[in-house]
Each structure stands twice: as structure tokens, then as C-alpha cells.
Design goal:
single chain; about 450 residues; 6-stranded mixed barrel; about 15% helix
Length: about 450
Amino acid sequence: MIPLIFLASLLALPADTFAAPTNVVPVSGQSISLLRRNPSPRDATQRGALAKRQRDNLIAKYGGATTQKRSTGYNSIVNQEYDSSYYGSLAIGTPAVSFDVILDTGSSDLWVAGSSCGTSCGSVATYNPSSSSTFQNLSTPFDINYGSGSAEGYVVQDTVQMAGFSVSSQGFAVVDVVSTGLLTAPVSGLLGLAWEPLAASGQMPLWQTLASSGSWDSALFAVQLTRYTNDSSAQTLEPGGVFNMGYTNSSLYTGSIDYIDIPGTDTYWYLPLTSITVQGTNITIDSGTTVAIDTGTTNIGGPASSIAAIYAQIPGSQPATGEWEGYYSFPCSTTVNVEVSFGGATWSISPADIAFDQLSSTECLGAFFETTTGTGTPSWIFGDAFLKNVYSVFRYNPPSIGFASLSSIAIAENGAGGTVPSATIGTVSAAVTNTSDAPRRHALSASLSALLFLAFSAVLLL
């Protein structure tokens, strides 16, 4: 979800990010199963973690090469409203309280609804600063705009836990004003997973704190998303896949991971877009075209001329009207084949993901829609309609994005149903203190406290 204010200019590096113009807008530690089927996703995830622990234990036990003690974690996520959005959970404060948050690689701010939010936040769970002994108010206003709404509040620091990792003094925003429709229960906020320069709060993103501190076995995170949009029996909430932190789960993909470096400044997660093929015909792509890879956007946005060229290859397609302006419809009986490349491997998008919605018994709404972006920003946004088709890896250093083909285990999760993960608080396996965003007065206070402690200790020893 990419905030609109940033679209004015990438070079200006404003503090917001952008969202797709659709109206759509978990758990720390080891979490529950994604699927009830043999082999079950829970088994796959646990088997991967067990295999890794067994290997690490043997290396340590029998004198193999050792490395700095680090860790990994995973978060079972939820598919909300038939592939419209995907959320996980984290916990905030002391004592820790869990919250569901949208996972968004298209923005960089963590924010949650505050207890003062009132009616605009509806019935979602809210964060109460007065209930946390580790809360610190930075007294900085926060304001961010997305295509699907806006949020306002103030910037704070507190302890944040996710997937077994705990970060003290993590900066984020507490929101007390939210536009209608931005939050859909049980979601209480949003976890931005892009880079720090995009953060409206001015705070380093949670993932970047962990990656830069050396807390992870590998400085990366990965996402696998499920598909329910073509399942007529799907519920509003379904098992959504998994968010891997610090490792890749080899049971969820086959072959190698094809990494492509980010072609410029670390802001968005973006790549060069080198080709799009529709029904076997190449769509003209201008040299230097880039695409943002955005888990917080449902569909795929691009320039109007390119979108028109895509639907020109689909017989019977036509521009949609009314609230669907900017989209196109096409006959549901048509199987649409799309392939894309970012300069490496070629990836197919399932026809089920190209048909985003059904408007009538014969007409479907296409996933590609027209959008405009600011000068210097990615002109394309590839959201979940693409990401459901690959295992996606977001690497800290070198800054790059990797894709791999989904394994049969991952594919079997689509439409499989099962128990929906709930927001719980897991066991902390690794703890980090975020120092990059600490206010100067806080740093001075900590230094003074250390000096006083040393002086007092010296007196005791005399």
C-alpha cells in the first residue's frame, strides 16, 4: 500500500507511501497451522524449523563451524475478504498485548489504533499507552495518506514483539483518527515493511531494526500467500500463508530463488519491469520502467496506455464504469494467460488471479487497473494478484527481491480451508534494543544513568 503524498517525487523522499485505488483495504512466536490436510502447512512449517534446529545442533555438538548466535521466526497470516488483504500479528507493550496488522511492503510505518481513537476505529482492538510500563511518547505528530484512506496520531516508542523477536524502544505511531473503511475488524493497524526513507513517522521499520542488528540468521524476510478468490465456499477470513523472518522455508518453494537487485535508492521494494506477455503477445514496456512489489495492494496497477494494451489482447474486454472506473471487464469464459519478467526468470500469473471479481454471470473484472504515480516513482504496482503465484523474498543486503516457484505443499494450501490463525503472544527467542531512532534526551538520560551507577558502585567499593 503506497502512500499518495510520496508520489510527488522520489528524489524529494517525502515521508509517506502509496496505495492501490481499490476500496479494499499475528502472532509472535510459533503459531498455529495454516491448513488441515496431509501434509499440513503446520507440519511443513514446523518440519522446516525442526530440520534447521537439528542441523544447527549437530554442527554445534560435533565441532563444526559455528556462527554468531542468531535466530529465525515465522508468523502465520490471515487472508481477509477473499484475497483483498493479508494480515499477521504482533504484540506491543509491557505487559504485551497482541494486535492484528496488515503486512505492507509498499510502506514503512508501523501504526496501531489507540484507545482514544473512538468511533472511527469501530470495534477493533486498541493500544492503551497507559497500560504499558515501557511506553514513551515522542510527542511528534503522525499523518499518512493511502489511496484507500488516511490515519492521524502521534509517534511513540515501546517494546514490540513478532515471531519470537522482541525490540525495545521500537518507534511507531498510535492513531486516534482513521478514515472510514481503512480498518476492517479484526485488523487494528498496519506493519510497513519497506525502507526507512519512506517512513512518515521518521522511525526505522521493525524489520529493518532486526535485519540491521544481526538478529536474523539471514538478513531477509519472505512471504507466501494463499488464494481464495476463486473458491465459492470461502469465508471472510481464511488461512493466508506465512511470513518468514530471518530465513526462507524450502518446503514452500522449488528450484532456486531468482534475486534481482533494487535498481536505485532503498525506498520502495521495486524492480525493473522488462516484459509483460498477454495471450502470447508482448506488451510494449518503456526502457527504465520500474515496478513496486507491494503486499498491501490487492491487484496490479499500471499506466493507462499499458493497461489498455493488455486488455486489447483479451477479446470482449471493455473499460468498466462507475465505482470500477480505471478497471476493465472481460468475458469470464476467457482464460487469460499473463507472464512477466523483471530481467531474470519469467513468472506466470494464474488466470484465477487475473479475474479479480465477477460482475455478472458472464462478465469478470480484471485485476489490472489504471493508475498514475509521481515523477521518479515506480509506474507499476504489483500486488497480491501477482504475489500469490510465487514465493517472495525481500533481502536486506544487497537490497534485492527474489522469487521462486511455489512447491506442491504451498499450492495445496489454496482454497484448502482450515483454522484461521489468531493473535496470540509467543515466547521471545531474541531481544534487540532499537537505538537508531531514540530521541537525544532519551540517550542523554541513559548515559547519565550509567555514569551515576558507576559512581555509586565505586563508592561502595571504597
